[in-house]
Amino acid sequence: MNYRHAYHAGNHADVLKHVVLARVIEHLKQKEAPFRFYDAHGGIGRYDLGGVEAEKTFEWREGVGRLFSTDGAPLPLSGEAEALLAPWRTCVAAMNEEGGLKQYPGSPEIARLMLRPVDRLRLNELHPVDYETLLKAYAHDGRTALSRLDALVFLKSQLPPPERRGLVLIDPPYEKTDEAERALRMLSEGLKRFATGVFLLWFPVTGDGLDRHILNRVRDMPVKHLWVSLNVRKPMPDGGLAGSGVVVINPPWKLGGELEVLAHTLAERLSQGEPRYEIKNAAP
Ligand SMILES: C[S@@+](CC[C@H](N)C(=O)[O-])C[C@H]1O[C@@H](n2cnc3c(N)ncnc32)[C@H](O)[C@@H]1O
Questions:
Q1: How many alpha carbons lie under 13 Å from residue 146 in its C-beta half-sphere?
Q2: pTM of this prediction?
């Protein structure tokens, strides 16, 4: 396992993924009944933007760095988009209470900050060193349990949640050639066990057509879904991460409209040349 998220934390793809995640959590909290959050690929949860890894790539500067200044002040989006961004912004601000923009919250931290005392977190990470870091950061949280399993094994062993309400994040690195197939399998196996669950699947846009392959396969699934993709520049073969997207299975009502507003505004803000976004709402 070579991939370490610390090199990429807070980049444009993290911003899109975490903004969508925060919106979905916000919707789930509108009902009083508790729910469970499953992070199948947790990473380490909290990222140091001044750390050795972040300073090798400085990817965060073209991501979270376009939404906060280095002294920690928000760089607001226009109109309605800023209100929709608020749950994510609050998480970033909570990690930087001592001033500046020094830390970035990964998905476990966003969930920890946003979930209520009645909700539960299940965090999984396979990398041995990153798992230890995650364990140290979250073992004390009474709502949280952690595991070090392959993500597919993790989901098969955990679903369905006892609460019958839940959100599953599938966020693999896509470094190995079979990872897209495995992620799609996680979706289909997950849905077999928990048909009413909300599932988020993150995917990269790199110019190799993998995004279209994933979306075609999701389109054929007999389940209500939407997806959003945001390219900050034109994808080219071997041109790196030009964009990314998130599929939302069983999306909360109104999420599609919110993502339309957000993606439009974020595409302008995160642009590295030729920005483009797409939203598709699809019924089964
Ligand atoms: C993109 S990062 C996750 C980032 C995190 N979800 C966030 O948004 O903050 C992907 C993580 O998956 C882990 N990983 C890779 N293969 C895995 C597998 N088969 N099962 C579980 N975790 C895996 C990697 O070690 C890495 O930490």
A1: 24
A2: 0.98
